């Protein structure tokens, strides 16, 4: 018998060796991939720990700076003396006794306006303020034709109420409820005006619309056969309409 066996034995030996050699690179490749994955995981956790450390140091430094700033501010506050603030309270009382449910207040207010000269620091201006020109601009459509009873009544179509001032007293006729309490605060503002300037507000009658958007379009009142636009007061206006703008005090009452 040969030292190396027969031919069939040699063939099987060669086949086994080829399988071993073909299997070894695959194991080495798997081992290499496993090592690479482990390295990546280790590096990731290392970077994560470093980031947490840096963030913690930043927070500690920021807290220390804030504490120092707050302490310094408190020290400055203790050094600066506080000056008491004097608030001048202006009152316009409505002298209504408790339990008076008649709907009116006693008429014991001054009937004439008493002029009080301004101080030397705030002298009266020699002429009206510049914004007074907008009063003339708002009333310009009625400058030549005037305002008749019929013109006023035509504004009733969209008005919420009619306001009449006679001898320093205000009267109101409501046509439709306004949004929330806009009409109430508008009337309160007019009452305050009568209280502040007794005898200075002339007798008048007007229609008031408590809706924001204007409705008297100027294009509807142009041309030779155009009628006089109705004078309607409201809170807003624009260049394309003729509604007369009035202060909106209801901002403080909603």
From TrEMBL:
<dbReference type="InterPro" id="IPR006598">
    <property type="entry name" value="CAP10"/>
</dbReference>
<protein>
    <submittedName>
        <fullName>Glycosyl transferase CAP10 domain</fullName>
    </submittedName>
</protein>
<feature type="transmembrane region" description="Helical">
    <location>
        <begin position="31"/>
        <end position="55"/>
    </location>
</feature>
<keyword id="KW-0808">Transferase</keyword>
<keyword id="KW-0472">Membrane</keyword>
<dbReference type="GO" id="GO:0016740">
    <property type="term" value="F:transferase activity"/>
</dbReference>
<dbReference type="InterPro" id="IPR051091">
    <property type="entry name" value="O-Glucosyltr/Glycosyltrsf_90"/>
</dbReference>
<keyword id="KW-0812">Transmembrane</keyword>
<feature type="domain" description="Glycosyl transferase CAP10">
    <location>
        <begin position="126"/>
        <end position="254"/>
    </location>
</feature>
<dbReference type="Pfam" id="PF05686">
    <property type="entry name" value="Glyco_transf_90"/>
</dbReference>
<keyword id="KW-1133">Transmembrane helix</keyword>
């Amino acid at each position: 018998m040969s030292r190396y066996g027969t031919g069939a034995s040699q063939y099987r030996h060669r086949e086994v060796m080829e399988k071993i050699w073909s299997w070894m690179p695959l194991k080495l490749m798997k081992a290499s991939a496993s090592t690479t994955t482990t390295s990546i995981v280790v590096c990731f956790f290392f970077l994560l720990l470093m980031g947490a450390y840096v963030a913690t140091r930043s927070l500690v430094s920021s807290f220390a700076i804030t504490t120092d700033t707050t302490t310094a501010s408190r020290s400055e506050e203790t050094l600066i003396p506080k000056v008491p603030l004097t608030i001048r309270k202006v009152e316009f009382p409505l002298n209504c006794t408790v339990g008076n449910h008649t709907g009116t207040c006693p008429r014991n207010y001054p009937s004439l306006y008493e002029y009080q000269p301004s101080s030397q620091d705030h002298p009266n201006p020699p002429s009206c303020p510049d914004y007074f020109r907008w009063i003339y601009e708002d009333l310009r459509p009625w400058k030549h034709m005037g305002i008749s009873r019929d013109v006023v009544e035509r504004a009733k179509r969209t008005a919420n109420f009619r306001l009449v001032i006679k001898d320093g007293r205000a009267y109101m006729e409501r046509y439709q409820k306004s949004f929330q309490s806009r009409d109430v605060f508008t009337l309160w503002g007019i009452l305050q005006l009568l209280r502040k300037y007794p005898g200075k507000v002339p007798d008048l009658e007007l229609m008031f619309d408590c809706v924001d958007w204007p409705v008297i379009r100027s294009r509807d009142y142009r041309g030779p056969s155009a009628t006089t636009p109705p004078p309607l007061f409201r809170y807003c206006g624009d260049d394309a309409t003729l509604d007369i703008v009035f202060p909106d005090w209801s901002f403080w009452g909603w």
